[in-house]
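User: I'm curious whether this sequence folds into something compact or stays loose and floppy. Could you predict its structure so I can see for myself?
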Amino acid sequence: MSSCGKPGHTSRRAFLQTLSAGCAYCAMAPAYAKLLDYKLAASEIAKGTWAVHGANEYFNFDNGGNIVNVAFIEVPDGVVVVDTGPSKRYGEALLALIERTIPGKRVLRVYNTHHHPDHCFGNQVFDRELIAAPQGVIDNLSLEGEGFAENLYRLVGDWMRGTALAIPGIALEASSEEIGGRRFSLYYLSGHTSSDFVVRDDETGVLFTGDLAFMFRTPTTPHADIATWQASISSLDSTDRELIFPGHGPKDVKGESLLQTADYLSWLDGNLRLSVERGLTMNEAMALPIPARFNALSVLRTEYERSVVHLYPQLEDSIWQEVEVTR
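Assistant: Here's the prediction. I'll summarize afterward.
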């Protein structure tokens, strides 16, 4: 008979080992929780407008998925939040940061700029009836959110513990709305995804673009329609604004984020189309050199290779016409 004792019973040694392990875990839990600390900080980019910058990196355990920009705005009667980050833990840290920065004011509105997980998986920390997005964003999140959550668990591990999908409770369609004594203009675009949402604070002129604009970070393309994205960038470029707060990277007072994003997308599309026309395989296309002018963009080679995977099959379908063969 093994040292585990009789079937259905636990030996005293096994019981003590389990108890000891449990006590050790309890002792370690506060230190472990402290280790998984996003250490969020806010910087004021316009009057009463606070930016929380993520790392210009790809998802990994060290950053916990904190690769995104979010923002919060003090309005006369409360606070407006733009995007909520990649996890419940992030959402909790963000809410605590808001309460420290703007004490005594409650959150009145939370906007989701699109359905990608780094932007909206802190939603569950906020009242669902305060979270707003276009119907397209809601539909996309409903369709793909669970899969995104599972993938982030694989990429960043326990940073995602306790995170659950939280769908916005308000479907937006108006061109503007007043929240807490402040008016915001609302723009319904697409290209980075099938539904991209941009918010403009009409008092400060800050334009929150989500991932339609990247600054010093290579654009991501898992749901991209490049021609439509370029049209959205052109539309944003003509929008009255004081500064742009992109989905990734520093604030932008000159429109450089739009130029960088448009330039990279133009090159990417042309390069991939030429590669398909030359008959290159995906692996051969991935190995092609990238122009030196893009060296300032972080995660360059990784995102380029991901874009080949995302975009190559549909380009092959569009460029290589089906040929009927009679046998």
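Summary: The longest helix spans residues 12-35. Helices lie at 12-35, 88-101, 117-120, 135-156, 226-237, 256-277, 282-286, 300-319.
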